[in-house]
Amino acid sequence: MTKHLATPVSLLDQMNDRLVQSKAAEDRQFVTALGRGLTLLAAFEHHEQLSHQQLCQLTTLPKATVTRLIYTLMTLGFLRTMAHGQYQLASSAVQLSAQAWSRHDVVAFAEPLLRQFATQNEVSVNLAKEIEGEMRYLACYRSPARLSVNLQVGSAVPIARTAIGRAFYAVSSSTRQAAITSNLQASLSVEDFGPAQTALTHASQYYETHGYTLSDGEFSTDILAVAVGVFDVTTGHYAYSLNASVPRANWEAEDYVAMIVPKLQALAERIGRGA
Question: Is the pLDDT assigned to residue 4 strictly greater than 80?
C-alpha cells in the first residue's frame, strides 16, 4: 500500500529533541531554562487546556520545574488558570500568535494561485478549513461552467458529505479528528451521526491509499469534486484542504481524477510551502 500522508512531527517533539541535543552537545550558548519554558507552551499545540499533571507528562519535566515555569509564564501573561486547576494560553501568547500569522497569510498568498488554477483548468477551486464542525470557505474561484451551488468566501459546508471536508478529516491529527467527531455528534441526530462517521472513516482509508477524496454527486447531485489536504510547513501540520469541482455531466469521475488530482496536489504543496 502506498502511503500519501505525511506524518508531521509535533512542535513539542521537535523542541524536546532540541533540548536533548543541546544537553548532549554541551551547548553553552543554549539557555536551557528558556527552552523548557517554551517547551511548556508548545504542549498546548493540540490542547486547549492542560492540568499540571498533564504538563509534566507531556514535557517529561520534573514536577517542581513545571510549577516554577507555570508561575513565571502566568506572571508574564502567557498562561492563565481555568476551572478545576487547569491552564490555558493567555493574552501574551495570543498576541504573539496573531502577529506571526499576520506575516504568514496563507489565504492572501493562495488567492492568485487559485484564480490561475481555475482559469487554466476550467474548474471551480476552493480553500477551506474546519471551524466548529463545518468546513468554512476562505477563498473561492468559480469555473466558467455553471454550477448549481454558488459557494462564496464565508460559506460553510458539511464535513462528512463533501470532498473538501473528508480530505480535511483524513489529514487531521487524531486529536483534531476526535474534536471533529465530537462536534458532529453534538450537532447531528443519532440517525445522521452514524453514517457521517462511517463516511469519514472510509474517506480516511481511501485518502491513505489514493491521496485524495472524491464526492460524486453526494453533496450536490450535479457536482463532481475532488479534494486534498494542505500541509502548512510554517505550522508543521495540515491546516486547510483544497478542492476542485466541475459539473458531473461534463466528466466521467475516473477521467476527471486522472486529469485534476496531480495538478491539485501540486497546487496544495505550493500553497503549503508558501512559494
Answer: no
Report residue 209 as a C-alpha cell: 491509499
What is the residue extent of each domain of the chain?
11-101, 104-273
**C-alpha cell, 107:** 489565504
Which CATH architecture is the domain 104-273 placed in?
2-Layer Sandwich (3.30)
Q: Of 252, 248, 210, which Cα lies nearest the Cα of 227? A: 210
- Residue 154, by phi and psi: left (phi above 0), alpha (psi -120 to 50) or beta? left
Cα 105 to chain center, whole Å?
15
Cα 226 to Cα 263: distance, rounded to the nearest angstrom: 11
The pLDDT score that the predictor gives to residue 149 is 62
| 124-131/134-141 β-pairing | antiparallel
CA–CA distance, 49 with 68 (Å, rounded to integer) = 18
Cell of 89: 494560553
* Class (C level, CATH) for 11-101: mainly alpha
**What DSSP assignment string belongs to 126-157?**
EEEEEETTEEEEEEEE--SS--S----TT-EE
Q: For 5, list phi and psi in degrees, rounded to 5.
A: -95, 125
Answer for the pair 242, 230: CB distance below 8 angstroms, yes or no: yes
* pLDDT at position 212: 97
| pLDDT at residue 104 is higher than 60 | no
- pLDDT per residue as tens digits for the range 58-97: 999 999 999 999 999 999 999 999 878 899 988 888 777 7
In tens, the pLDDT along 171-186 reads 999 988 998 998 888 8
> Distance between CA 13 and CA 236 in Å, rounded?
12
Q: Which three cell numbers stand for residue 47?
A: 490542547
